[in-house]
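[Solved] Which block belongs to which protein?

Original post:
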Amino acid sequence: MAGVIAGNVVTMTQTSKRPEHSRRRYLERMARVVERIEAEPDAAADLETIAAWAGFSPFHFHRQFRALCGMPLQRFVQLSRLHRAAMQLAFRPGTRVIDAALDAGYEAPEAFARAFRARLGQTPSAFRSAPDWSAWEAVSASLQAARSKAMNDVMTTAVEIREFAAVRVAVMEHRGDPAGIGDSIRRFIDWRREFGFSPGKSRTFNVFPTDPRTAVEGGHRVWLCASVPSWFVGDDRVRVEEIPGGRCAVLAVTGPAMDLEEPATLLYRDWLPASGETLRDFPLFCERGRLYPQVSAAEALTELILPLA
């Protein structure tokens, strides 16, 4: 940069440009920090340790992180840990509060309870019994926004075209407010456990017949799906459908992927017009290959699938 004096005003002119790969290396270093925070919820969370993960000076790293991710480092660390704990309490029956606290890096249950209530508006026990999904959604949205800013440029996997084999699924349909899907997920998890179709024994899919941002009030729908064998005929809680086989565009999404609208927009807005492909008459769907919080947020993997003609 070179200074140019004009009256009492000093402006800067660009004399050289950093190559794009330097910017990418910088983002990759920041992405590693986000991944490690999410992969190691019980790791030391002091500024010096986390800055060292990326090879940055602790004198500057808190500002670097906030400038890129839009929130202070320690808030991201705390929200990441509390979000994982909330997921365990809500969706993994039998999880004890003390176990969620320890897994989130809290040695004292009282400190965990205070932090949990401050961010989610309920005690851990109350959330486990009857979650306030609006508070949970707010935490999820904040984390996702910060994570996306740090990782989208370096973590987006290229779209692949694959042949998808048809799969028979049991469907429990969520209808209505998207924010209430957590209760439907809890019922679906209970049903899967009852029939022995838990993840590991049965594949997990979501089908999206509607767009939550444009659906009329009360008209939003999501299929919660588990693959089932030919003998299963459904019951009063689920029906049997087939996700048809055929050519599909597949985008791998890492992280919790609770809200897939951003990668869906990438497929529809960026990839599809440039691809020359035509869509088939079946909704966008996804397969949850590695489920959060059964694995860490950094290890979780969802494949977003767009059916092609």
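(Second protein starts here: sequence line, then its structure tokens.)
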Amino acid sequence: MRDEAGQDAVVVLPHILDPRSRPDPYPLYEEVRAAEPVWVPGRPVVVFASHEACEAVLRDPRASNDRHHALLHRPPGTAGGAAPVPAELPSFLFMDPPRHSALRRLAAPGFTPRAVRRLAPMIRELTDDLLDEAAARGHLDGVADLASPLPVTVICRVLGIDTGEREWYRTRSSLLGQAVDPYLAFLGVPAPGLAERRRAEAELTEFFGRLAAERRVEPRDDMVSRLLAAEIDGEPLTDEEIVTTCRLLLNAGHETTVSLIANGLLTLLDHPGTLAALRDDPVATAPAVVEELLRLQPPLQLVHRHAREDMEVRGTPVPRGTTMVLLLAGANRDSAAFGCPHRFDAERADASRHLSFGLGTHYCLGAPLGRLEAELAFTRFAQRVVGPELADGPPHYRPHVVLRGPASLPLRTRAILDRATPWAPPRRERSDQPGTAAR
């Protein structure tokens, strides 16, 4: 089942977890893809990194997100029918249909393209507020001042929770985000910081439990109140389902967008022509830029799926209970799917074939919101921030493996223009000259 190349690739897997690989993990994904499939010795785990294999698994209904189907999550020595190790973040994200579909349908109306478009004025105003605050301080950090506060504030407003505590939510969500890092799959141990994650999870659970109790007494026009009023097959949601759904929407509703905007800003600093295009014609430019950044620097580097029954992936038998680790970031740079895959190309015609939001049943619920936030953030950054460049050399990265992104982006700028700068400037001849782009 494993040839020499596969054995060599097994050695690569722990390096994916190494913080020193965080700035550029893509060569490691290349090695895995060249040797695919890569089986982890001694554990029921197989790793895929090609676009074809990852797409096939994401679309296959036999590939489950429910950890009850994973031998990997069972205590050593237990029988096949024994209860699995309790999963962190037990929400509909880790369920399969029909319960997954029913819970997802209740949350979905707040994240449809039409519902998201209604948020655009608020997101524009918030983006300008954040840039105004940075201008008043006299310095701009692309993560702390824009990529982080923008999506967490937006999702707080969608959920109807206090935005004044956004840093409290942010730090706890960041801890929980490390739960999906593949330490158990690759090394057989939980991701570091288990005690801190459980404490953060308990604090968020307690918070949403109190909030749900308040909304029962005094409902509002927000997501928590709608979940409290909802029913599935004539039955109300359980308290646990309400709390875990709210917690999932908070965490998933901003963590990936933080990384998308942070990685995108870092990439755009090296492409002044694209910044100029965003400034001059954002309506035509921003959607394609976001799709290419999603492909090139995906905020979600990998996902897990579990074989609920025996299945086959590109001719590879995958026994029931096997965990499949899909390196989405490797699939997005597969030369069999994309020409010059390591190059940023804002005019790439097929960028939307990326797998960054998944496919099938678990396609990202918040994809329309993440796209809009990124489009508006990049557009306003290009329009108001003059001559941006990194202030302190290459950035340090967050400890997250899956939610990869820089921890901070201190920038030097020549100016941050006033918010009176129009969002939709008159069309004029586009220039790709670096001197023109830098203004």
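Accepted answer:
You had them paired correctly. Confirming on the second one: Residues 79-87, 429-439 have pLDDT under 50 and may be disordered.
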